[in-house]
Design brief:
This protein is α/β, with parallel strands linked by helices and 308 residues long. The protein has helices at 9-29, 45-55, 77-87, 97-107, 120-123, 128-136, 162-177, 179-188, 203-216, 269-273, and strands at 35-38, 63-66, 91-93, 141-144, 149-152, 219-220, 226-227, 242-243, 257-259, 277-279, 289-294, 300-304. A 5-stranded mixed beta sheet has the order 3-2-1-11-12, with helices on one face. A 4-stranded mixed beta sheet has the order 4-5-9-10.
């Protein structure tokens, strides 16, 4: 009886065809992992999902950075939060001013919703406690050592390095995660003072300045004071005001930063290539666009939005 040391020819050919088919299918379906940063969603859930479809976002492979203000003013803030929470480790979120406002309202029901607030559905949701717990665990600043990219909702003062920003953001995150201290801070966080950084600041004043820089700032005066009233594009304001990203001698400079909050800006040569600054709030809630940027190749993606 003849013994074979290998499968017969037809069997070998069949097995090879199977292996080749598997390889072709794997190559055809494979996609390099991508990291996408998305600007202010503000309750624009339909636009958010259309943008993810455009990106072919795969939560099993890709990473999603969200630059704060997921909620408020748009029609579907609760749906946005529930979907982002379902992404778990695939999503990295930094808190914006509207998330802090939501937290403050959740902790003090004597505070009244503003006329433009659309987060009542969240406050009345049976899932409010779970949402609040999740929000309180999110950072206010993010830096990725591999990508060498940072993300913040609004901006940074010139006195801070990237390490300083991480340290101060973590300091405030620790306060927010504590039920007693967090509630006390949220009760007192409104208002525009103090408006200049001093390392000697303590307690509520210190945490208010940290929160205001990370979630509210746009402009500084020449003397380094925060200026909150002006929201227009830099080309339309008096020259004495400086956008936070153009402040001289900024210690964070040299690190690319994606940020939201400032819908009148856009990614231009002036803001992105020269300064490595990437503003990605493109006014979805105002009926303009919802925008993402691929951090690996700096490619921009946008979907048009409906007026809410």
């Amino acid at each position: 009886m003849e013994l074979y040391s290998r499968p017969p020819f037809r069997c070998s050919l069949f097995l090879n065809l199977i292996h080749c088919t598997k390889l072709i299918l794997w190559l055809g379906s494979s996609k390099e992992m991508a990291t996408y940063a998305v600007g202010d969603i503000q309750g624009c859930y339909d636009e958010f999902r259309r943008l993810l479809d455009l990106l072919k976002f795969n939560p099993d492979k890709d990473k999603l950075w969200l630059a704060g203000d997921l909620v408020n003013r748009g029609p579907a803030s609760l749906a946005v939060l529930k979907y982002v929470m379902s992404l778990k480790d695939a999503a990295t979120v930094v808190l914006g001013n509207h998330e802090l406002h939501l937290l403050a309202l959740s902790q003090n029901r004597q505070l009244k919703l503003g006329k433009n607030d659309t987060i009542g559905q969240i406050l009345d949701s049976p899932e409010l406690d779970r949402i609040v717990k999740w929000l309180r665990a999110q950072p206010l600043f993010h830096y990725d050592n591999k990508l060498k990219f940072a993300m913040v909702h609004a901006g940074l003062p010139p006195e801070w390095s990237i390490n300083d920003a991480l340290m101060h953001a973590n300091e405030l995150s620790h306060i927010l995660s504590d039920e007693v201290e967090g509630k006390n801070f949220l009760k007192h966080m409104y208002g525009n003072e103090p408006s200049i950084w001093d390392e000697r600041l303590e307690g509520i004043d210190r945490w208010k300045f940290i929160a205001d820089c990370l979630t509210r700032c746009r402009y500084f005066t020449p003397n380094g004071y925060l200026e909150f009233e002006e929201k227009r594009h830099p080309s339309l304001v008096k020259v004495s005001l400086q956008p936070w990203y153009l402040m001289p001698n900024a210690r964070w400079r040299g690190t690319p930063i994606v940020f939201g909050h400032w819908a009148s800006l856009s990614v231009t040569k002036h803001t992105s290539l020269e300064n490595q600054i990437f503003p990605i709030d493109t006014g979805a809630v105002w009926g303009r666009d919802l925008t993402a940027i691929s951090l690996e190749d700096k490619k921009l993606f946008s979907v048009s939005a409906k007026v809410t």
